[in-house]
Amino acid sequence: MSKTQFARYNIGQVIRHRLYAMRGVIFDVDTSFGGMDTEPAANGRTPSLVYRLFAEDDEVPFVACIAEHDLEPDDSGEPVSHPGIGSLFDVGEAGSYRRRSQSMN
After folding, report:
1. Which end of the chain lies in a sparser environment, N or C, as judged by fewer CB atoms within 10 Å?
2. CB 62 within 8 A of CB 79
3. Inter-CA distances, 81 with 6, 45, 61, Å
4. Where are the alpha helices (DSSP H) in 59-98?
């Protein structure tokens, strides 16, 4: 029997890595990496959802895939400067990101 797992974070939410100086905007949540699996992973942790995000660090923007347990909310209010954001999101008041109704590609 499988256990339903709910995403802790939302599409358009700004998050940061809990260990590294990296932050970004979530644009997808992937369950194919074992998010619905109830068996413990090799390291003893329960498998986690994986988030895809438009990310940035001190050097360069990039796309990242990061497990849920390695993320935490970013409440800094600072915008994320990634060139891909405009293709999927409109930037709202107070730096919020709303998914566009149509893609611009």
Report:
1. N
2. no
3. 28, 33, 7
4. 85-88
pLDDT single digits (tens) 12-52: 999 999 999 999 999 999 887 654 444 455 555 566 799 99
For the chain, how are helix, strand and coil distributed in percent, rounded to 5?
A: 10, 35, 55
Tokens representing 29?
């949540």
- Which amino acid is located at 65 in the chain? C
**Annotation: CATH topology of 14-99:** SH3 type barrels. (2.30.30)
Question: How many angstroms separate the CA atoms of 36 and 96, rounded?
Answer: 29
Alpha helices in the chain, H assignment, sequence order: 85-88
Distances in whole angstroms, Cα of residue 90 to Cα of each of 66, 77, 95 = 23, 16, 10
CA distances from 33 to 15, 21, 73, 105 (A): 20, 24, 22, 27
pTM above 0.85, yes or no: no
